[in-house]
Each structure stands twice: as C-alpha cells, then as structure tokens.
Write a structure and sequence with these properties.
It is a single chain. The protein is of the alpha+beta class. The protein folds into two domains: 81-363, Glycosidases (TIM Barrel, Alpha-Beta Barrel), CATH 3.20.20; 391-455, Golgi alpha-mannosidase II (Immunoglobulin-like, Sandwich), CATH 2.60.40. Helices cover 27% and strands 13% of the residues. The chain is built from 14 helices and 16 strands. The strands form five sheets. The chain has a five-stranded antiparallel beta sheet with strand order 9-10-11-16-13. The protein has a three-stranded antiparallel beta sheet with strand order 1-3-2, with no helix packed on it. β10 and β11 form a beta hairpin. α3 (81-96) packs parallel to α5 (141-152), α6 packs across α7 and α10 (262-278) packs parallel to α14 (370-384). The longest helix is centred in the middle third of the chain and has 18 residues, at 197-214.
Amino acid sequence: DVVPNHSSDRHEWFQEALASPKGSNARERYIFRDGRGEDGEEPPADWTSIFSGPAWTRVPDGQWYLHSFATEQPDFNWKHPEVHEDFLRTLAFWSYRVVDGFLIDVAHGLAKDLPEELPSKAELKEMPKDGTHPLWDRDDVHQIYAEWRELFDRYDPPRIAVAEAWVETAERRAKYASPEGLGQAFNFDLMEADFDAAHFREIVTDNLAQSAVTGSSTTWVFSNHDGVRHATRYGLPPRAGRDVKQGAEWVLAGGPEDGIDRALGLRRARAATLFELALPGSAYLYQGEELGLHEVAEIPDEQRQDPAFWRTTAEDRGFDGLGRDGCRVPLPWTRTGESFGFGTGGAHLPQPAWFADFSVEAEDGVRGSTLEMYRAALRLRRELQSEESLTWDETLSIGAVLAFERPGGWLSVTNFGEAPVALPEGEVLIASSPLEGGVDDEILLPGATTAWLRRAAR
C-alpha cells in the first residue's frame, strides 16, 4: 500500500524541511507558502482538509504547509525531481523483492497546480474535475504513472498496480486503469449500489464497455476500509432514492438491532459475492467479508481511532465525521481469547461478543459457512475463468433475476427478489444458499441467492 500524495510529519525529509529556511531545497519537496495578512497570520487559503479542519498548518518561522488530509500528513510537491526519484527507488526496492504489486492510495492526488493567488474554498468547489482542477485528478498525474509503469514492466512478471482514485466519472477512472499507466483502478460503483438487479446490470455493462475502450481490466469491490460492510448494508431498508450513503443513518443511530435484518444482509452479501466472482475482471475482497462480518457500530467514542472522528465536533459530525472504525475492527481468528486470537494482547478497537460465532475457528471446515463458500468459489473461479467477456442471458434475466453466461458454457444466475425461480437444466457448481426442489425435478433458486451452473448440452 503506497501513499504517494504525502508523507508523515516524522519523515526525515519533513523534519529537515522544518529545520531549513524558507526557499530551501528541503522545503521545496513539500508545499510551503507564506500566509496572508499583515504578519502572515492567516493561512494561504481557507481550504478544509479531507479529515476536517484547516488544510494549512503554520510552522514556527511563520510559513504554512499544505496537508490535504491530517496535519501529520504533509503533501509532497510532485514538481520536485527528488520526489519522483525517491518513489521510483522505493517501487524498485519492493519490486526487486518480488512483491506482486502495489495499491496506490489517493492516486488522484499528487499532481497540483497552485497559482500565486490561491482560489478560495468556494471557488475550488465550483471548479470542474475534468483534469484541470488544481488539486485533484489532474491530467498530468498520468505522466507520473507512465514512469511507474515503465519501471513495473521491467520485471517478470510485470508488477501490477491498482489505483484508489475517487473521481467523477468512469471515463476519468479508466485513465488510471490504462495499460500504459497503473493498469487497474478500484471501481466502487457496486459498493455504492443497492442490492438491485437493474442497477447491478447497468453498472456491469457500463464498466465492461469502458474497459473495452481503454484496454484495461475492470475491477469489482463490495466492501473496503472506508465504508460500511456490505453484509450490514444489505440488511437495511432501501434508501428509496435518497442521497445518503448506504448504512450511514444506521451507524449514526448507534446500530439499532430493530433497524436491521442481519440474516438477510448476509444472505444478500453471499449472493453478491458469487455474482462478483463470476464477472470478468478482478475481484477485490476486503478482510473479514469472507467470514460474513457485519459492521461494528457499538464503539465508544473514547476508543475510536479514525482521525476523521477526532477532527470534527459532535455538532458537525455526519457519517464521514463519525469515522470508519466499524469496518476496521481486528478479525476474530478464534472463538475465545483476549482479542479472539488476533494477537497476544487486547485489540486496538473493541471486538463485540458476537465475533465468536464469526471467527475462523467457528467456520473453518464447516459445510455451508461463509468462509468455506469463499474458498470453494475462488477455487472454481480459477478453474473456470477464460476470456474477459460475458453474455447476458435475456431469457433468464427478467424482473429480479440477473443471469449471464461466461466463455466455456457456464452460467451465473442471481435472484435479487424474494420468491424462488426455476433454474435451467445443468450441473450446479456452487450456490450461495441451499437450493430448493420444485415439481418435476426442477431446481429452484431461492430469493437473495446466486448459483453457478454448467449448462446441459443443447
């Protein structure tokens, strides 16, 4: 996990910058500016950091440095050649040691174009994010990644890289996934979608089409370290078109049990996972989803770790300000123990008692467990994957059902509804929930279930 937008304020470069005078080479590696006002007592601009609070912090000699995120994370100046050289050395260091690849955090940052007269926060908000924004998703960031791709391709096999880039459109995201750049970019569209057949189909169709244009390999994500786990999201009432993050209201309310159907959420999450693993492209799985973990909502304020929480006041605290600790609680490996087997001491975030039933120990080797379903699905995926294409089965894809065929004659069928539907004839390879029997030996696919099958000869 590489974070090229910024360093720690404890990094030797930044410590050198603090000890060096204005205009020095050490300071030029970062973004220092004089303040506004008669004595420079006001920040260079009224910008707010991603983690809330000012984006500029003053140092003892009066200058200010930019930190798009936390105060302890000063932004690099990517116009400085030493920054480029240092990251190329770092990537070569790990590539030589045969890492498979790199996740590039905040990949849409790095390149910045800051004029002498900085725009205000209000002006920044109105600026288009079309490659010309002064701070985010600038077109010139791809020159950096072209350098990196040249380095990655010197190794056998070439090192992979995936961008975490929150950008406006699929077209902008595809630039990061270019074969001449990083090669892949996280696609968060499914992560932000309700459990709905039409919405899933639209997302898959659009992203595969975009990948075909750019020659990149698409990616699929349902959960990550920044959002509510999908087993929880799918157990909550639908948003009904409201513009709120999935699960946000439930988390802000403290995670009330009367507001969630946990069994339905996990059932849908398992179905979504088999849907995802049947798709062309790369599936990225977030630690804990293979155990069927739900979001941990009951975290006392004094035990929260996310800087987003500590940098906002209670009055201003929405979901983003509450923090992301609920999906970051250490995994349960054993049924018992001070940290459910995660380590020899206590966990750095509180683990609820219900973790015991979702531990690796509780699921390992247990037929039908979420862990064993993931293992079986991944084995099958490796056996079945071939060409990066799919064909929608229009005969089966009606209403709440979504079905597609992959090269090699195998089929994925997902029932997003509640009522069971008949499966076509064929060998069932795996299902996310137990299947049901119908009349005349037909096999029924229950609601919130996905099955893979090899079609009978036609």
